[in-house]
Predict the 3D structure of the following.
Amino acid sequence: MKIDIQTLHFTAWEPLKEFIHNHVSKLDHYWDQINMAEVTLKTEKDTAEFENKIVEIRLHVPGNDLFAQDKGGTFEAAVDSVCQKLKKQIIKTKDKMYAH
């Protein structure tokens, strides 16, 4: 699976990119038909919240794409949360596809 990481208004450090690659590539274990993952990282600057790191991930799969997003205090926490959401979506989508 190809993983494309985009950042808005900042440059991601290499350890963060490696962390994202490791976590997102694990989704391939649940469904080998994932063609590509688009990861978008951004921060909310106009908020007083501690959890201002936003991660969005779109998985290109047969049929409709899967999408999830979440906020966290760190990008790592948000990536972990989004990957858990996508894992649930993958399992649900596969169950629907193969139930027919």
Strands lie at 2-7, 36-43, 53-60, 66-72. The radius of gyration is 14 Å. The first helix runs from residue 14 to 25.
